[in-house]
Amino acid sequence: MDIGVLLPTGSAQWGPDGAPRDLVAFGVHAERSGFSSLFVNDSLISPRIEALTMLAALAPATERVTLGTGALLPFLRRPIQAAQQLASIDLLSGGRLTVAVGAGFPGRFGRPFYTLSEVPWERRFARLDETVTLWRDLWNGATSFHGEILRFDDIPPATMPRTGTSPRERATSSSASAPWTCAPSETSSTGSPPCSPSYGQGRIKAEPREIRWCPGAQGARMRGMAAPEGFDYTIRADGSVLIEHRGRAATTVRGERAAAFLSEVELGDPQEVMARWTGNYRRGNERAAKNHPRNAHR
After folding, report:
1. To which H or E segment does residue 248 belong?
2. pLDDT digits (tens, 9 = 90+) for 122-140
């Protein structure tokens, strides 16, 4: 069994000293402790060490572990430059890079990032597919690319990964209407996609052996449970986190619980995580007592 570590790259997880330089030492310690992989997530939702910067720092400091993204959001970067970055990390790490990519979550966890990146939200999954195809073509020596969305001519010679082809890839989506696309080689060592009922409704485009479905997601869909929605959260100046449901305060977490919540919301489906932290508020399990704060304004 291979067990990996998702590095706490978010500033809320750095501890009281707030020293992100310790993340490299953390990764080295994890490798020496026997973990097989180090993964980083990719987001603009809160201050953090950027994903590819973190992997570049880990590449020469480690020797054995797989270095991976879980998951990289390609729309945050220019596609040709991203191909160069990924190939460079693969070279610096001696061929240990694994790449999982995604199109972002709906709501505040995805769409605003497209606006900040000056990339249209529409056709985001087609853009994701074309971006990965472009990378593979560049790593196979292509000097032009003509897709429906991305079009490039006179591309200079690309930086080639250590293997001469491409880092191990897996593309993932976060929408029921989007397909899963897996690389024909081995899948990313992140294992199964994040648990969410919506994933169970996706269209499969890869061979079944390349995808390991999350049992929790399938079970929820089979029971006919609606996916939670309408949750949002705000990080306050004092470090506490206010979780709201459809504009109404559901709960507030502070201190270590706030840090734990921020870690979980970055790892899984944000709506699922917030529903759980508020007592499955969306699912009808909220307390019925009239004097409970959740029901004060009903």
Report:
1. strand 248-253
2. 999 999 999 999 999 999 9
How far does the chain reach from its first CA to its final CA, in angstroms? 50
Q: Hey, which bits of 48-123 come out as E strands?
A: 66-72, 97-101
User: Pick the residue with more confidence: 270 or 9?
Assistant: 9
- pTM passes above 0.70: no
* CB 67, CB 93: distance < 8 Å: yes
Ordered by where they begin, the domains of the chain are 4-222 (3.20.20.30), 231-295 (no CATH)
Tokens describing residue 111: 């769409």
What pLDDT shows up at residue 66? 96
- Strands annotated E in 19-65: 37-40
pLDDT of residue 18 exceeding 70, the answer is yes
Residue 123: count other Cβ atoms within 10 Å of its Cβ: 12
CA distance linking residue 285 with residue 283, whole number of Å: 6
Q: How far apart are CA 119 and CA 173, in angstroms?
A: 17
pLDDT of residue 25: 92
Q: Give CA separation, 41 vs 68, 100, 153, 203, in Å.
A: 9, 10, 32, 24
Q: Residue 93 carries which DSSP code?
A: T
Q: Are strands 145-146 and 97-101 parallel, antiparallel or unpaired?
A: unpaired
Instruction: Report the alpha-carbon distance of residue 138 to residue 159 in Å, rounded.
Output: 8
Residue 285: the pLDDT is 44
